[in-house]
Amino acid sequence: MIDGKKILFSGMQATGTLTLGNYLGALKNWVTLSDEYECFYSVVDLHSITVRQDPAELRKRARNLLVLYIAAGLDPKKNCIYYQSHVSGHAELAWILNCFTYMGELNRMTQFKDKMAKHSDNINAGLYTYPVLMAADILLYQADVVPVGKDQLQHLELTRDVAQRFNGVYGEIFTIPEPYIGQRGARVMSLQDPTKKMSKSDENANASIYLMDDTDTIIRKFKRAVTDSEAEIRYREEQPGIRNLIDIYCACTGKTPEETEKEFEGKGYGEFKLAVGESVAAILKPVQERFQELSKDKAYIDSIIKENGEKAEYYARKTLRKVQKKVGFPERIR
Predict the structure, then answer these.
(1) pLDDT value at position 4?
(2) Is the domain of 146 the same as that of 258?
(3) Catalytic residue among 28, 115, 221, 273
(4) 194 three-state secondary structure
(5) Does residue 191 lie in a domain region?
(6) Do 149 and 276 share a domain, yes or no?
(7) Which end of the chain has less Cβ packing within 10 Å, N or C?
(8) Each residue of 117-140: pLDDT tens digit?
(9) Which domain holds residue 233?
(10) How far apart are CA 132 and CA 145, in angstroms?
(11) CATH number of the CATH domain containing 63
């Protein structure tokens, strides 16, 4: 705990362009958590290089992501918003935890198998030990809770197992993190294949709404969204395309699926798609305007990077010193 508040950690990769799914599924909810938790929100650029990156583009995207965190409503005075690569403790702790993680555990990680299939020309050790670095991210700040989707639960379970194993040998060093499951209605699916999550790496540009898409682009993509031939706006498993659009509409307007069904009863898919697109454009416009404003204030963003990086470094170093002492590393002479 810090000042009586439980600690929460989360982060996003500095690759691709954030989608509506990233915003509704994570970023928008993060804003509501800072009153209850002491929050550390990282731009996880160390994770990003498991796939080859253009250096200049990675730097640009990392900065844009950090600015987007703030534009979306995260107060950098209440939340620690920082670059993962600016805190060496992430990599240092990851190496130590590698030595407490079993090969069998990493072999069971389904995301490694997925990435191995997608990046067969670059199956590197970083892809394999990615979950250990994620564990270090979380344990470094003694996080009590971690917001995770279903696809990340396996990594959090590994984090808990490794932390308990280390604690079993050396005593209660690490806090054992619990998952924080966000509000319902935030799981946004692809507009072209509603059986898959909306992804910033989708090759089909019409499948995803990007945070910086303008209103015309947003409306056009929703008009092309896959639905069905039933011509009824019902929140049913049998209509995954319409169900996804209802989820998005509810997340943007605060309405329930039942209220949405009633509102559009007897109306066509075209009218409904337009309404969903307009609701999305309305919630993204303030974020886009704030992003443009912040991007012009280089001195302010640089000050946030410096101050928040130093704060993250302070708390990371506290944990790392304890771990290094427990495993037997010599003390540093200062």
Answers:
(1) 87
(2) no
(3) 115
(4) coil
(5) no
(6) no
(7) C
(8) 666 677 888 888 999 999 999 999
(9) 205-292
(10) 17
(11) 3.40.50.620
Q: Do residues 113 and 216 both lie within one domain?
A: no
Return phi, psi of residue 180, to 5°.
-110, 110
Domain count, the chain: 2
Residues 50 and 130 placed together within one structural domain of the fold: yes
In a domain, 49, yes or no: yes
Q: Report pLDDT for 184.
A: 45
Cβ atoms 182, 172 nearer than 8 A: no
- Given the residues 200, 311, 322, 326, select the one marked as catalytic: 200
Q: What is the pLDDT of residue 181?
A: 72
Co-location of 147 and 235 in the same domain? no
Is residue 2 a part of any domain in this protein? no
Those residues with Cβ within 8 angstroms of residue 122's Cβ, 6 or more apart along the chain or in another chain: 51, 52
Instruction: Tell me the average pLDDT across 111-118.
Output: 68
222 phi and psi angles, rounded to 5 deg: -70, -35
Of 68, 77, 11, which Cα lies nearest the Cα of 210? 68
Whether pTM exceeds 0.85:
yes
What per-residue confidence (pLDDT) applies to 117? 67
**Structure token digits, residue 230:** 């039933």
Report the share of the chain in percent with pLDDT over 70: 96
Which residue, among 291, 285, 295, has the nearest Cα to 213 in the 3D structure?
Answer: 285
Residue range 137-178, pLDDT digits in tens: 999 999 999 988 777 788 899 999 999 999 999 999 999 999
**Known catalytic residue at 118:** no
Strands in 38-43's sheet, in edge-to-edge order, are 79-83, 38-43, 7-12, 145-147, 178-180
168 lies in a domain?
A: yes
Tokens of 3: 């000042």
Average pLDDT over residues 194-223: 91
| 145 and 285 co-located in one domain | no
Alpha helices (H) in the chain, listed in sequence order: 20-22, 28-31, 45-48, 55-71, 89-98, 103-107, 110-118, 125-139, 153-170, 215-223, 240-253, 257-263, 269-295, 298-327
**Are 270 and 141 part of one and the same domain?**
no
From the CB of residue 160, how many other CB atoms can be counted at a distance below 10 Å? 19
Q: Is 28 a catalytic residue?
A: no
- The CATH number for 212's domain is 1.10.240.10
Average pLDDT score over the chain: 91
Same domain, 106 and 55: yes
